[in-house]
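Sequence in, structure out.
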Amino acid sequence: MRAQFVLSEIGVGLRRNLTMTFAVIVSVALSLALLGGALLAREQVNSMKGFWYDKVQVSIYLCNENDAESDPNCARGAVTAQQKRQIKADLDKLDIVETVYHESAEQAYKHYREQFKDSPLADSLTPDQMQESYRVKLKDPTKFEVISTAFSGREGVQEVQDQRNLLENLFRMLEGMNFAALGLMGLMLVVALLLIVNTVRVAAFSRRRETGIMRLVGASSFYIQMPFIAEAAFAGLLGATGATVLLVVGRYFLIDAGLSLAEQMPLIDFIGWDALLKVLPLVFVVGVLMPALAAFITLRKYLKV
């Protein structure tokens, strides 16, 4: 009987404040969708870091005749055959080195032409202007400093470059976008909380006669508050359901179909459905508990029981 009464009160309360309840549902859905999207974006960035950091190499660029005239690191002239053999031998001795690949000036020129064939500079370059290099894959990419210390400033070496540095700006931009999404999510949560508080206040005021009668007949505070808390929790549950739909549809159309980013960007290791399934329980927990807790705190102040 009590459960039936609580359920009937929930239905009455939702119908009385239909417009505000709908606003609560929409704001909760949007804020939770942003929360889920931000968590998935962080997971994607971490996945990309692991994917690309495992593939990055350390490049040891060797001096050529042109560098000898313009770069102080190559002031002693172009790299000699003896210096190249010594660099290769020293690299092979290091335990942290997994593989070493030598790229000649001709190969570097060919790769440049393939990658930047539409660039106006491609036609003006010649193979002798390109640099030879050793491309070193490390067992642990974080050990770059060992290579840099051992080979920077050596005769015949123009520069030691860690490809991770080329990716840092991209990852910083992605993380900045993620923080922006979290900030917007926080703003939407504040809006949702304000709507929940106002909805509960209006509901408590419009039903003050009923709650007064319940108090006179000996109903407990929890029993009187339960319909209001359940209404907020139910609205949050609907909002969480809406957020789930947005996340599932967004992930499907962005990656699996429609825009099909997975096909347009085959070099990016996109997160799978399992990552989304890990986020959804948190979305539902926050969607139900946040409105319920907000309603409980509001009732302690505005519902004198």
